[in-house]
């Protein structure tokens, strides 16, 4: 094999490995694995409006958290929803508690990519939101702006999110 072919082969192998390792999985307390940042591909079977919302939301992955933020220099959870749904001309309020009042409430078993999830993380009212990114083997993954990690994808199966889930809403009909 000449040097040029060997170089192309190494670039291919390295690129494949890089794509494979975009997600970072950390082991949290008690040895449980938690997803902290996964670069996802939007499923082609998702309708075009949901796909546009998810592509916008995923474009912010890795963006740091900033209370009240709505840009790639800093984003909060309601800003992520506000920005993402705005992509398909759905105007939402800027606060998650108010966003949860819009759309159609749906059962968790019926969520689809592009639906919104709302959580109570403060002990009072709805205080956090995310967008269903994908469902794999019944496990729901959602993109959201974490106050400690910025915009990430998490699993609804983690105890933290499971305990705090309040409702699912569909804005896209």
UniProtKB/TrEMBL annotation:
According to UniProt, the name of this protein is Probable endopeptidase Spr
Q: What is the lineage of its organism?
A: Bacteria, Pseudomonadati, Bacteroidota, Flavobacteriia, Flavobacteriales
Query: Which molecular function terms from Gene Ontology are attached?
Result: cysteine-type peptidase activity
NlpC/P60 domain ranges (all copies)? 47-172
PANTHER family listed in its UniProt record: MUREIN DD-ENDOPEPTIDASE MEPH-RELATED
Q: Which UniProt keywords apply?
A: Hydrolase, Protease, Thiol protease
Gene name of this polypeptide? spr_2
What InterPro entries would the database entry show? Answer: NLP_P60_dom, Papain-like_cys_pep_sf, Peptidase_C40
Among PROSITE patterns, the record links this protein to: NLPC_P60
Task: List the source organism.
Answer: Candidatus Ornithobacterium hominis
